[in-house]
Design goal:
This protein has 243 residues and is mainly α. The chain has 11 helices and 4 strands; from the N terminus they run H-H-E-E-H-H-H-H-H-E-E-H-H-H-H. Helix 2 packs across helix 3, helix 2 runs parallel beside helix 11 and helix 5 runs antiparallel to helix 7.
Length: 243
């Protein structure tokens, strides 16, 4: 994670953010809309899949800002490998073996094959050997479960985001005004999508810039309305990585 934090800080972050915002702005010109999310076209109007539109308009500019045009030159399907990995990432939590998670491993291998850069000869790895725990260290126990050194601890984002105590009785329903009507929910301890402390997501600032840019440009440039006025309800039965 060290190289990621180096890339997403200081002047480098500013440069990546500027390139990403420029790419988002360009991708949101109607003539540049991809057939991957446009479902219907009529004079002056396009019907798009909102999910696919948002995903493509954010992931593609980000990959371009981080890697330039290199990924597209190597494989034009790189962005779609990212989509496929995201959709299957929940299989990692359940430790699916490779023969049961071909979609996950296939997407991961395609991503690595696209962005892999061989290390120059003579270079050394910067990885350090983990320091063994002190003999006085006692593994913490939470709700009867002992957390040992080396264990991975992940927050159950989906459960936290759908918990009624955190976001009200309609937590599973899309409500754009939720945090306007009840401002204390914006500071809810149950909303923690970017981690915290040493594991604070290094890409959180860039992600926030991109989301703000996307929303601002869409509302400024287009007149948007839902084909089906009713917002969808979260399918709590489907398995996903996050929400």
């Amino acid at each position: 994670m060290g190289w990621v934090k180096d890339q997403l800080s200081g002047n480098i972050l500013a440069e990546i953010g500027e390139n990403s915002i420029g790419s988002i702005n360009k991708s949101l010109q109607i003539d540049n809309f991809s057939s991957g999310f446009v479902e219907w076209t009529s004079p002056g109007t396009k019907t798009v899949s909102l999910e696919k539109w948002v995903r493509y308009s954010l992931v593609h500019p980000t990959s371009k800002a981080l890697f330039g045009e290199s990924t597209r030159k190597v494989d034009t399907q790189f962005v779609f490998y990212c989509f496929a990995f995201e959709e299957a990432a929940w299989e990692m939590l359940h430790r699916y073996p490779k023969f049961l998670a071909q979609d996950l491993y296939g997407a991961a291998e395609s991503i690595l094959r696209t962005i892999w850069l061989p290390r120059p000869s003579g270079t050394k790895s910067s990885a350090s050997t983990p320091r063994p725990p002190s003999s006085a260290f006692r593994p913490p126990t939470v709700e009867g479960l002992t957390i040992n050194t080396g264990d991975q601890v992940l927050s159950p984002f989906r459960q936290l985001n759908l918990k009624r105590e955190n976001f009200g009785p309609d937590a599973a329903t899309g409500d754009p005004d939720r945090f306007v009507k009840t401002k204390q929910w914006r500071r809810s301890m149950g909303y923690n999508p970017v981690g915290g402390g040493a594991t604070h997501c290094p890409g959180r600032i860039l992600a926030k810039q991109e989301v703000y840019t996307f929303v601002a440009v869409v509302l400024y440039r287009f007149e948007v309305k839902l084909v089906e006025p009713k917002l969808p309800t979260v399918n709590a039965g489907s398995r996903v990585w996050g929400l």
